[in-house]
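task queued by scheduler; priority normal; single chain, no ligands, no partner chains; default sampling; output format set to structure tokens
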Amino acid sequence: AALLWGTILLGCSCGPGPPRVGAAPLLAATYVLDDANGLGREFDGIGAVSGGGATSRLLVNYQEPYRSQILDYLFKPNFGASLHILKVEIGGDAQSTDGTEPSHMHYENDENYFRGYEWWLMKEAKKRNPKIKLIGLPWAFPGWIGKGENWPYDYPDITAYYIVSWILGAKQYHDLDIDYIGIWNERAFSSKYIKLLRYTLDKHGLEQVRIIASDRLWEPISFVMLIDSELHGVVDVIGAHYPGTKTVQNALLTGKKLWSSEDYSTFNNDVGAGCWARILNQNYVNGNMTSTIAWNLVASYYEQLPFGRCGLMTAQEPWSGHYKVESPIWITAHTTQFTQPGWSYLQVDGHLEGGGSFVALTDGQGNLTIIIETMSHNHSKCIRPPLPNFSVIPQRATFYLRGSFYMVEALQVWHSRLDFESGNSSLFQQLRPVRVWQGRFSLDLNVDEVYTLTTLKRGRKCGFPEPPPPQPFPSSYKDDFNIRNPPFSEAPNFADQTGVFEYFVNASDPGDHVFTLRQVVVQRPITWVSDADQTISVIGNFKWVNITVTCDIYIEKPHDGGVFIAGRVDNGGIYVRRTKGVFFWVFADGTYRVTGDLAGKQILMKGLSGVRDNAWHTLTLIIQGNSASGLLNGYLLWENVTVSEPRNGWAALGTRSFEFAQFDNFHVE
């Protein structure tokens, strides 16, 4: 008979469910945890991605104390998710899923290590956990790197210099040590470039920076490493994306560390938590992966952009202060609060007889952590890849502790149960300790549960008072961009979807427009997806129908320059090229247009405006029901344009091409 003191009586369920009165006997199986014959692979940590792209865009605009609370839930040790790794996008001025992130080098002779918000985020993470590992990875590159070609490897010395500059800037300006660097997210790799990157790193005294390749699939990188000993020597980690918990033989044959360097990407409800719980264990059990990194860290972007709420938690309302600690945060804690990078996995099969999995890790100094998950198929589907069928049933697991663990007398117990019937899930609750009797204990496992059993007594489920309730974006919103020393390079709540819009000091202006918002990308970047041919930044409430947008505009490009303001904008992110809405354009040649799309193909009205470049003008767009009208400098320019689709959407501003232009006194009603 299994003796399990403290938590359960003989034959009772350890889970919080009711005892199994008159039920069929549980499937019973035994598992041995032993370190006498050596350990498994070294554990490298659990992390998350900020970027790829602009996924933390709205986080920076939160007021205190809410912003710090969100950061504590993500990074503070023994508090919430307690992440071991933060991976950030090296901004490339291009669309990389939910927006663009600015580059530290827009142009060849330009360097600025204060753009965007990833520097700030890395510092905030380090402030909370000085041991957190930092990874940088580009999704896109500024156009000058390719000298007109949409390809970063024609001039590999330039690309390597650009990436190493980012690493050096992180240290010089922010005292941040980057631990790992990637190649090009989910795109082709170049062996020549990877070798040159290693050479350039070493030349600049960055020998400690490790290289991850290729942030795509296991192949062809694994095969190429097996036949190219020089490449094998410079790649430290093989990182695959969305591997479905499986690896390939060639990857194992390299002898390198194997990571799921991007995974999850799933809506952050309880099914998302089930997905995360399953892959956190099974990436090692099935695939020998010693790190799993979630895309994304925190859903801090407008929810109607692609992959809304696919973060470990949600913080998409800086105007209200509302945020939500979603269940994946507490699933993360089951592993992160009771392990550290540098621990080792035990050599175990890891599959439970009744379905589900377990991993066991040790610090090599007598501490032991066991994480068990019993996620069912339908409650643990990730967004990708497709999940083959499997079944999980209630079961009794008996564990025998051998080797240095034989003398363990008790294990702390943390438990989560995802309840898909009542919706009343129990997350990361501490139960009474399990007593280990002569190196043995038993546990009754139900379906859709996670257990952590550990010798460590440091776990904590922390929290703050409830944040403010959710509120829609303000129905009247103004920004005059009059800020002398902005904390960030971008104005609050504007979400750039092609191009980069930054605070600008217009030193030559006599006074009314000294501080403006300027579009600064003047060459099409080396893109990751199909950026628009126009630049655009969206703002506001996607549900807006009747809307008035007013903005002062300044075309800088002579002859064929142009700018727009817009309403009912219905798309962004990776789908930005297909964006529709009501767009009011004025051009440097003195003409105007009204179009139903960003591409400018669906012309609703056109005519002469008298607008010229290098002069300030005020545009007003009024959309009411099925009708739109436009004002120039307060005077009606066009009216009674019929608009039927889309029915709602954001406000926006932007330019005709990749060109300099300025905006001021933005107002939406």
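post-processing summary
- The first helix runs from residue 66 to 75.
- The first strand starts at residue 27 and ends at 33.
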